[in-house]
Write a structure and sequence with these properties.
Elements (H helix, E strand, L loop, with lengths): L3 H33 L11 H17 L8 H22 L7 H20 L15 H23 L11 H15 L3 H24 L2 H18 L2 H4 L1 H12 L6 H14 L4 H4 L5 H14 L2 H15 L23 H10 L9 H10 L3 H20 L4 H7 L1 H9 L2 H5 L4 H10 L10
Helix pairs in contact: 1-2, 1-11, 1-13, 2-3, 2-4, 3-4, 3-14, 4-17, 5-7, 7-8, 7-18, 7-19, 10-18, 14-16, 16-17, 17-21
Protein backbone atom coordinates (compact mmCIF):
# COMPACT_ATOMS: atom_id res chain seq x y z
CA UNK A 1 0.00 0.00 0.00
CA UNK A 2 1.33 3.44 -0.91
CA UNK A 3 1.79 5.92 1.87
CA UNK A 4 2.07 9.64 1.17
CA UNK A 5 5.85 9.57 0.92
CA UNK A 6 5.87 6.64 -1.51
CA UNK A 7 3.10 8.21 -3.57
CA UNK A 8 5.06 11.45 -3.80
CA UNK A 9 8.19 9.57 -4.86
CA UNK A 10 6.22 7.69 -7.52
CA UNK A 11 4.75 10.91 -8.90
CA UNK A 12 8.21 12.46 -9.11
CA UNK A 13 9.49 9.36 -10.91
CA UNK A 14 6.71 9.51 -13.49
CA UNK A 15 7.31 13.24 -13.93
CA UNK A 16 11.00 12.50 -14.47
CA UNK A 17 10.12 9.88 -17.08
CA UNK A 18 7.79 12.31 -18.85
CA UNK A 19 10.54 14.95 -18.95
CA UNK A 20 12.97 12.36 -20.30
CA UNK A 21 10.56 11.34 -23.08
CA UNK A 22 10.08 15.00 -24.00
CA UNK A 23 13.84 15.58 -23.98
CA UNK A 24 14.37 12.58 -26.23
CA UNK A 25 11.71 13.62 -28.74
CA UNK A 26 13.01 17.19 -28.86
CA UNK A 27 16.65 16.15 -29.30
CA UNK A 28 15.74 13.55 -31.92
CA UNK A 29 13.96 16.10 -34.10
CA UNK A 30 16.43 18.90 -33.39
CA UNK A 31 19.79 17.16 -33.81
CA UNK A 32 19.44 13.57 -35.02
CA UNK A 33 17.08 13.85 -37.99
CA UNK A 34 18.93 16.71 -39.74
CA UNK A 35 22.23 14.83 -39.56
CA UNK A 36 21.30 11.14 -39.82
CA UNK A 37 18.21 11.00 -41.98
CA UNK A 38 20.22 9.14 -44.62
CA UNK A 39 20.64 6.33 -42.08
CA UNK A 40 16.89 6.02 -41.76
CA UNK A 41 16.55 8.20 -38.67
CA UNK A 42 13.75 10.21 -40.22
CA UNK A 43 10.70 12.06 -39.04
CA UNK A 44 7.45 11.04 -40.72
CA UNK A 45 3.92 12.18 -40.05
CA UNK A 46 2.26 9.49 -37.94
CA UNK A 47 -1.36 9.49 -36.72
CA UNK A 48 -1.35 10.97 -33.24
CA UNK A 49 -3.12 7.96 -31.75
CA UNK A 50 -0.01 5.80 -32.20
CA UNK A 51 2.30 8.31 -30.51
CA UNK A 52 -0.20 8.68 -27.67
CA UNK A 53 -0.23 4.92 -27.13
CA UNK A 54 3.58 4.93 -26.92
CA UNK A 55 3.42 7.68 -24.31
CA UNK A 56 0.87 5.67 -22.30
CA UNK A 57 2.87 2.43 -22.48
CA UNK A 58 6.09 4.18 -21.40
CA UNK A 59 4.36 5.86 -18.46
CA UNK A 60 2.48 2.68 -17.55
CA UNK A 61 5.77 0.89 -16.94
CA UNK A 62 6.86 3.75 -14.68
CA UNK A 63 3.81 3.13 -12.48
CA UNK A 64 5.35 0.01 -10.98
CA UNK A 65 8.97 -0.10 -12.09
CA UNK A 66 11.60 -0.08 -9.29
CA UNK A 67 12.16 3.41 -7.89
CA UNK A 68 15.26 2.45 -5.97
CA UNK A 69 18.14 0.26 -7.03
CA UNK A 70 17.96 -2.65 -4.59
CA UNK A 71 19.42 -5.38 -6.82
CA UNK A 72 22.41 -5.00 -9.17
CA UNK A 73 20.48 -6.31 -12.18
CA UNK A 74 18.12 -3.37 -11.87
CA UNK A 75 20.86 -1.28 -13.45
CA UNK A 76 20.43 -3.49 -16.53
CA UNK A 77 16.66 -3.07 -16.29
CA UNK A 78 16.92 0.73 -16.12
CA UNK A 79 19.13 0.69 -19.22
CA UNK A 80 16.62 -1.54 -21.01
CA UNK A 81 13.77 0.80 -20.08
CA UNK A 82 15.36 4.21 -20.66
CA UNK A 83 17.72 3.51 -23.56
CA UNK A 84 16.00 0.68 -25.43
CA UNK A 85 12.26 0.65 -24.76
CA UNK A 86 11.36 4.35 -24.61
CA UNK A 87 13.32 5.56 -27.68
CA UNK A 88 12.22 2.50 -29.68
CA UNK A 89 8.58 3.22 -28.91
CA UNK A 90 8.85 6.41 -30.98
CA UNK A 91 11.74 5.97 -33.44
CA UNK A 92 10.15 2.88 -34.98
CA UNK A 93 7.21 5.03 -36.13
CA UNK A 94 9.49 7.69 -37.63
CA UNK A 95 11.95 5.28 -39.27
CA UNK A 96 12.74 5.85 -42.93
CA UNK A 97 14.83 2.68 -43.38
CA UNK A 98 12.61 0.71 -43.28
CA UNK A 99 9.33 2.61 -43.47
CA UNK A 100 7.13 0.40 -41.34
CA UNK A 101 3.35 0.50 -41.33
CA UNK A 102 2.19 2.15 -38.08
CA UNK A 103 -0.01 -0.87 -37.34
CA UNK A 104 3.04 -3.14 -37.53
CA UNK A 105 4.99 -0.77 -35.29
CA UNK A 106 2.17 -0.76 -32.75
CA UNK A 107 2.25 -4.56 -32.60
CA UNK A 108 6.04 -4.50 -32.23
CA UNK A 109 5.91 -1.88 -29.46
CA UNK A 110 3.28 -3.90 -27.60
CA UNK A 111 5.56 -6.94 -27.68
CA UNK A 112 8.45 -4.80 -26.42
CA UNK A 113 6.16 -3.69 -23.61
CA UNK A 114 5.39 -7.34 -22.81
CA UNK A 115 9.12 -8.08 -22.74
CA UNK A 116 9.77 -5.17 -20.37
CA UNK A 117 6.87 -6.27 -18.16
CA UNK A 118 8.36 -9.76 -17.88
CA UNK A 119 11.65 -8.21 -16.72
CA UNK A 120 9.75 -6.15 -14.13
CA UNK A 121 7.75 -9.15 -12.94
CA UNK A 122 10.99 -11.03 -12.37
CA UNK A 123 11.70 -8.81 -9.37
CA UNK A 124 8.71 -10.34 -7.61
CA UNK A 125 10.58 -13.67 -7.50
CA UNK A 126 12.50 -14.50 -4.30
CA UNK A 127 16.28 -14.70 -4.52
CA UNK A 128 18.01 -18.06 -4.39
CA UNK A 129 19.46 -19.15 -1.06
CA UNK A 130 23.21 -19.41 -1.58
CA UNK A 131 25.71 -20.11 1.16
CA UNK A 132 29.00 -18.29 1.37
CA UNK A 133 31.92 -20.37 0.20
CA UNK A 134 35.08 -21.12 2.14
CA UNK A 135 37.62 -20.09 -0.50
CA UNK A 136 40.51 -18.18 1.08
CA UNK A 137 41.23 -14.56 0.22
CA UNK A 138 44.80 -15.41 -0.78
CA UNK A 139 43.73 -18.16 -3.17
CA UNK A 140 41.05 -15.98 -4.77
CA UNK A 141 43.42 -13.14 -5.52
CA UNK A 142 46.16 -15.44 -6.77
CA UNK A 143 43.69 -16.94 -9.22
CA UNK A 144 42.37 -13.50 -10.20
CA UNK A 145 45.80 -12.00 -10.84
CA UNK A 146 47.00 -15.08 -12.72
CA UNK A 147 43.97 -14.94 -15.00
CA UNK A 148 44.18 -11.18 -15.58
CA UNK A 149 47.94 -11.25 -16.18
CA UNK A 150 47.56 -14.19 -18.55
CA UNK A 151 45.01 -12.25 -20.64
CA UNK A 152 47.28 -9.22 -20.89
CA UNK A 153 50.29 -11.37 -21.81
CA UNK A 154 48.28 -13.09 -24.52
CA UNK A 155 47.30 -9.72 -25.99
CA UNK A 156 50.95 -8.67 -25.97
CA UNK A 157 51.84 -11.77 -27.99
CA UNK A 158 49.14 -10.91 -30.54
CA UNK A 159 49.60 -7.15 -30.82
CA UNK A 160 53.31 -6.92 -29.96
CA UNK A 161 54.45 -3.32 -29.96
CA UNK A 162 51.34 -2.10 -31.77
CA UNK A 163 49.70 0.70 -29.81
CA UNK A 164 48.06 3.78 -31.27
CA UNK A 165 45.88 6.41 -29.65
CA UNK A 166 43.54 8.36 -31.90
CA UNK A 167 40.69 10.85 -31.72
CA UNK A 168 37.09 9.97 -32.51
CA UNK A 169 37.63 10.55 -36.23
CA UNK A 170 40.63 8.23 -36.60
CA UNK A 171 39.64 5.61 -34.04
CA UNK A 172 38.23 3.37 -36.76
CA UNK A 173 41.70 3.13 -38.31
CA UNK A 174 43.02 1.84 -34.98
CA UNK A 175 40.17 -0.65 -34.81
CA UNK A 176 40.81 -1.85 -38.36
CA UNK A 177 44.56 -2.28 -37.83
CA UNK A 178 43.95 -4.13 -34.55
CA UNK A 179 41.43 -6.38 -36.26
CA UNK A 180 43.99 -7.25 -38.92
CA UNK A 181 46.45 -8.33 -36.22
CA UNK A 182 43.81 -10.51 -34.58
CA UNK A 183 43.02 -12.11 -37.95
CA UNK A 184 46.72 -12.70 -38.60
CA UNK A 185 47.03 -14.49 -35.24
CA UNK A 186 44.73 -17.22 -36.55
CA UNK A 187 42.60 -17.20 -33.39
CA UNK A 188 39.61 -15.23 -32.19
CA UNK A 189 40.66 -15.54 -28.54
CA UNK A 190 42.17 -12.03 -28.60
CA UNK A 191 38.66 -10.68 -28.93
CA UNK A 192 37.51 -12.63 -25.88
CA UNK A 193 40.58 -11.46 -23.94
CA UNK A 194 39.82 -7.81 -24.67
CA UNK A 195 36.16 -8.16 -23.72
CA UNK A 196 36.86 -10.10 -20.51
CA UNK A 197 39.39 -7.52 -19.40
CA UNK A 198 37.08 -4.64 -20.33
CA UNK A 199 33.87 -6.22 -19.03
CA UNK A 200 35.00 -8.04 -15.91
CA UNK A 201 38.59 -7.61 -14.76
CA UNK A 202 39.02 -3.84 -14.95
CA UNK A 203 35.57 -2.83 -13.58
CA UNK A 204 36.06 -5.33 -10.72
CA UNK A 205 39.37 -3.68 -9.82
CA UNK A 206 37.91 -0.20 -10.23
CA UNK A 207 35.00 -1.00 -7.91
CA UNK A 208 37.25 -2.40 -5.20
CA UNK A 209 39.56 0.57 -5.64
CA UNK A 210 36.95 3.30 -5.19
CA UNK A 211 35.12 1.67 -2.29
CA UNK A 212 38.22 0.52 -0.41
CA UNK A 213 40.28 3.57 -1.40
CA UNK A 214 42.83 1.32 -3.07
CA UNK A 215 43.78 3.93 -5.63
CA UNK A 216 46.42 1.68 -7.13
CA UNK A 217 43.59 -0.55 -8.35
CA UNK A 218 41.90 2.47 -9.94
CA UNK A 219 45.15 3.34 -11.71
CA UNK A 220 45.51 -0.23 -12.95
CA UNK A 221 41.96 -0.06 -14.34
CA UNK A 222 42.68 3.28 -16.06
CA UNK A 223 45.95 2.00 -17.53
CA UNK A 224 44.27 -1.19 -18.67
CA UNK A 225 41.55 0.69 -20.51
CA UNK A 226 44.16 2.96 -22.09
CA UNK A 227 46.00 -0.11 -23.40
CA UNK A 228 42.77 -1.67 -24.73
CA UNK A 229 41.95 1.62 -26.44
CA UNK A 230 45.35 1.69 -28.14
CA UNK A 231 45.01 -1.82 -29.57
CA UNK A 232 41.29 -2.11 -30.17
CA UNK A 233 40.01 1.41 -30.82
CA UNK A 234 36.74 0.89 -28.95
CA UNK A 235 34.76 3.95 -27.87
CA UNK A 236 33.51 2.04 -24.84
CA UNK A 237 37.07 1.69 -23.55
CA UNK A 238 37.74 5.37 -24.30
CA UNK A 239 34.84 6.39 -22.05
CA UNK A 240 35.05 3.52 -19.55
CA UNK A 241 36.42 5.52 -16.63
CA UNK A 242 33.73 8.14 -17.19
CA UNK A 243 30.74 5.82 -17.02
CA UNK A 244 32.21 3.68 -14.24
CA UNK A 245 32.66 6.87 -12.22
CA UNK A 246 29.09 7.92 -13.07
CA UNK A 247 27.72 4.60 -11.77
CA UNK A 248 29.83 5.01 -8.63
CA UNK A 249 28.31 8.42 -7.93
CA UNK A 250 24.85 7.00 -8.62
CA UNK A 251 25.13 4.28 -5.98
CA UNK A 252 27.81 5.42 -3.51
CA UNK A 253 25.20 6.56 -0.98
CA UNK A 254 22.89 3.65 -1.82
CA UNK A 255 20.45 3.10 -4.65
CA UNK A 256 17.61 5.30 -3.38
CA UNK A 257 15.66 7.10 -6.12
CA UNK A 258 17.97 5.65 -8.78
CA UNK A 259 15.19 5.71 -11.37
CA UNK A 260 14.61 9.45 -11.26
CA UNK A 261 18.35 10.13 -11.04
CA UNK A 262 18.94 8.14 -14.22
CA UNK A 263 16.03 9.90 -15.94
CA UNK A 264 17.48 13.28 -14.97
CA UNK A 265 20.98 12.29 -16.09
CA UNK A 266 19.82 11.05 -19.48
CA UNK A 267 17.61 14.13 -19.97
CA UNK A 268 20.63 16.32 -19.27
CA UNK A 269 22.79 14.38 -21.74
CA UNK A 270 20.15 14.71 -24.45
CA UNK A 271 19.59 18.44 -23.94
CA UNK A 272 23.23 19.37 -23.39
CA UNK A 273 23.76 20.61 -27.00
CA UNK A 274 21.47 23.58 -26.31
CA UNK A 275 24.49 25.29 -24.77
CA UNK A 276 26.72 24.81 -27.83
CA UNK A 277 25.57 28.01 -29.57
CA UNK A 278 26.15 29.90 -26.32
CA UNK A 279 29.77 28.78 -26.04
CA UNK A 280 30.53 29.06 -29.74
CA UNK A 281 31.04 25.39 -30.61
CA UNK A 282 27.88 24.78 -32.65
CA UNK A 283 28.81 22.90 -35.81
CA UNK A 284 32.32 22.22 -34.57
CA UNK A 285 34.05 18.96 -33.68
CA UNK A 286 32.61 18.85 -30.14
CA UNK A 287 29.08 19.34 -31.45
CA UNK A 288 29.53 16.76 -34.21
CA UNK A 289 31.00 14.04 -32.06
CA UNK A 290 28.74 14.63 -29.08
CA UNK A 291 25.62 14.15 -31.19
CA UNK A 292 27.24 11.21 -33.00
CA UNK A 293 28.03 9.34 -29.78
CA UNK A 294 25.22 10.33 -27.42
CA UNK A 295 22.20 10.98 -29.60
CA UNK A 296 22.94 8.76 -32.57
CA UNK A 297 25.00 5.84 -31.31
CA UNK A 298 23.35 5.42 -27.90
CA UNK A 299 19.79 6.68 -28.20
CA UNK A 300 18.89 6.22 -31.89
CA UNK A 301 20.74 3.67 -34.04
CA UNK A 302 20.28 0.59 -31.79
CA UNK A 303 16.57 1.40 -31.56
CA UNK A 304 16.29 1.87 -35.34
CA UNK A 305 17.97 -1.54 -35.71
CA UNK A 306 15.10 -3.21 -33.84
CA UNK A 307 12.78 -2.14 -36.65
CA UNK A 308 15.30 -3.35 -39.22
CA UNK A 309 15.51 -6.78 -37.61
CA UNK A 310 11.71 -6.95 -37.48
CA UNK A 311 11.38 -5.99 -41.15
CA UNK A 312 14.16 -8.33 -42.30
CA UNK A 313 12.86 -11.41 -40.52
CA UNK A 314 9.35 -10.84 -41.83
CA UNK A 315 10.58 -12.11 -45.20
CA UNK A 316 13.75 -14.08 -44.38
CA UNK A 317 14.36 -17.35 -42.51
CA UNK A 318 14.42 -17.22 -38.72
CA UNK A 319 17.53 -18.59 -37.03
CA UNK A 320 15.75 -20.59 -34.29
CA UNK A 321 18.75 -19.89 -32.07
CA UNK A 322 21.31 -21.21 -34.55
CA UNK A 323 23.32 -17.97 -34.23
CA UNK A 324 24.24 -19.16 -30.72
CA UNK A 325 27.28 -21.38 -30.35
CA UNK A 326 26.10 -24.80 -29.27
CA UNK A 327 22.64 -24.55 -30.76
CA UNK A 328 24.24 -24.26 -34.21
CA UNK A 329 25.46 -27.83 -33.72
CA UNK A 330 21.83 -28.93 -33.81
CA UNK A 331 20.17 -26.30 -36.02
CA UNK A 332 21.60 -25.15 -39.34
CA UNK A 333 22.39 -21.45 -39.48
CA UNK A 334 20.75 -20.03 -42.65
CA UNK A 335 23.11 -17.14 -43.50
CA UNK A 336 26.68 -16.72 -44.76
CA UNK A 337 27.53 -13.91 -42.32
CA UNK A 338 26.62 -13.37 -38.68
CA UNK A 339 23.30 -11.65 -38.00
CA UNK A 340 24.58 -8.09 -37.38
CA UNK A 341 26.61 -8.07 -40.60
CA UNK A 342 23.74 -9.66 -42.52
CA UNK A 343 21.38 -6.90 -41.38
CA UNK A 344 23.97 -4.18 -42.05
CA UNK A 345 24.57 -5.46 -45.57
CA UNK A 346 20.84 -5.75 -46.31
CA UNK A 347 19.83 -2.24 -45.27
CA UNK A 348 22.96 -0.25 -46.16
CA UNK A 349 24.67 -2.37 -48.83
CA UNK A 350 27.91 -1.98 -46.91
CA UNK A 351 30.04 -3.93 -44.45
CA UNK A 352 28.30 -2.56 -41.36
CA UNK A 353 27.77 -4.41 -38.11
CA UNK A 354 24.21 -3.80 -36.89
CA UNK A 355 24.58 -4.95 -33.30
CA UNK A 356 21.38 -4.60 -31.35
CA UNK A 357 19.80 -5.51 -28.02
CA UNK A 358 18.67 -9.01 -27.05
CA UNK A 359 15.04 -8.30 -27.98
CA UNK A 360 16.02 -8.18 -31.65
CA UNK A 361 19.30 -10.09 -31.96
CA UNK A 362 18.11 -13.08 -29.93
CA UNK A 363 14.33 -12.71 -29.79
CA UNK A 364 13.12 -11.49 -33.18
CA UNK A 365 15.94 -13.18 -35.09
CA UNK A 366 15.17 -16.55 -33.52
CA UNK A 367 11.38 -16.69 -33.29
CA UNK A 368 9.92 -13.43 -34.57
CA UNK A 369 7.84 -11.29 -32.21
CA UNK A 370 7.19 -14.18 -29.82
CA UNK A 371 10.93 -14.33 -29.28
CA UNK A 372 10.81 -11.01 -27.37
CA UNK A 373 8.99 -12.42 -24.31
CA UNK A 374 11.00 -15.65 -24.62
CA UNK A 375 14.38 -13.93 -24.39
CA UNK A 376 13.03 -11.65 -21.65
CA UNK A 377 12.20 -14.73 -19.59
CA UNK A 378 15.75 -16.01 -20.14
CA UNK A 379 17.08 -12.65 -18.96
CA UNK A 380 14.96 -12.93 -15.80
CA UNK A 381 16.71 -16.20 -14.93
CA UNK A 382 20.14 -14.60 -15.50
CA UNK A 383 19.16 -11.55 -13.44
CA UNK A 384 17.94 -13.80 -10.63
CA UNK A 385 21.21 -15.72 -10.53
CA UNK A 386 23.26 -12.51 -10.56
CA UNK A 387 21.22 -10.93 -7.78
CA UNK A 388 21.30 -14.09 -5.67
CA UNK A 389 25.09 -14.25 -5.83
CA UNK A 390 25.35 -10.49 -5.31
CA UNK A 391 23.36 -10.76 -2.07
CA UNK A 392 26.54 -12.11 -0.49
CA UNK A 393 28.20 -8.72 -1.13
CA UNK A 394 27.61 -5.00 -0.93
CA UNK A 395 25.09 -3.79 -3.51
CA UNK A 396 27.17 -0.75 -4.45
CA UNK A 397 30.32 -2.75 -5.12
CA UNK A 398 28.56 -5.24 -7.40
CA UNK A 399 26.66 -2.55 -9.30
CA UNK A 400 29.82 -0.64 -10.18
CA UNK A 401 31.59 -3.89 -11.11
CA UNK A 402 28.68 -4.53 -13.50
CA UNK A 403 29.35 -1.22 -15.29
CA UNK A 404 30.88 -2.25 -18.61
CA UNK A 405 28.68 -5.34 -18.87
CA UNK A 406 25.73 -2.93 -18.89
CA UNK A 407 26.95 -1.42 -22.17
CA UNK A 408 27.33 -4.83 -23.78
CA UNK A 409 23.85 -5.80 -22.57
CA UNK A 410 22.36 -2.68 -24.17
CA UNK A 411 23.99 -3.35 -27.54
CA UNK A 412 24.20 -7.08 -28.05
CA UNK A 413 22.91 -10.58 -27.59
CA UNK A 414 22.15 -11.76 -24.07
CA UNK A 415 24.43 -14.73 -24.75
CA UNK A 416 27.25 -12.41 -25.81
CA UNK A 417 26.72 -10.52 -22.56
CA UNK A 418 26.98 -13.72 -20.55
CA UNK A 419 30.00 -15.31 -22.23
CA UNK A 420 32.02 -12.75 -24.19
CA UNK A 421 30.92 -9.77 -22.13
CA UNK A 422 32.10 -11.24 -18.84
CA UNK A 423 28.80 -11.58 -16.93
CA UNK A 424 29.42 -15.27 -16.27
CA UNK A 425 32.93 -14.48 -15.00
CA UNK A 426 31.54 -11.80 -12.69
CA UNK A 427 28.94 -14.19 -11.26
CA UNK A 428 31.59 -16.84 -10.62
CA UNK A 429 33.95 -14.29 -9.06
CA UNK A 430 31.23 -12.95 -6.77
CA UNK A 431 30.42 -16.45 -5.62
CA UNK A 432 34.02 -17.21 -4.72
CA UNK A 433 35.00 -13.74 -3.50
CA UNK A 434 35.26 -14.59 0.21
CA UNK A 435 35.26 -11.34 2.18
CA UNK A 436 33.47 -8.19 1.14
CA UNK A 437 35.86 -5.25 1.13
CA UNK A 438 38.50 -7.34 2.86
CA UNK A 439 41.67 -5.49 3.75
CA UNK A 440 43.52 -8.38 2.13
CA UNK A 441 42.50 -7.48 -1.38
CA UNK A 442 45.78 -8.20 -3.12
Amino acid sequence: MLNRENLKARIFLMLGVAIYISAFLYSYKQWVVPRYESWGLSYRDVPEIYITISWLLCLASALWMPRDLTRPSQLLFFIQYFIIFIPSSFILYYSGNPELDPRDVLLLVIFLFFGLTILQAGYKLPLLSLKKNSLSVKFFWRAFWCGATGLFIYLLTVFGSYFQLADFQNIYDVRSAGGDLVTASGSSFAGYAQMWLSGFVLPFLFSIGVFRKRWGFVLIAAAGYLYLLGIGGSKSTMLAMVYLSAIYFLVRAGGKNAGIKIAACFSGLLLFPVIFPLIGVEGGALDTWYVAIIHSRIFSIPQLSIGQYYDFFQTHPLTYGSHITGINWLVTYPYDMDIPRTIGRYFYNADLTANVNMWAQDGIASFGLIGIPVVSAIAVVIFLLLDSVARLHDLRFVTVALGNITLIFANGSIFTTIISGGLFLLIVALYFYPAEYSDKVC
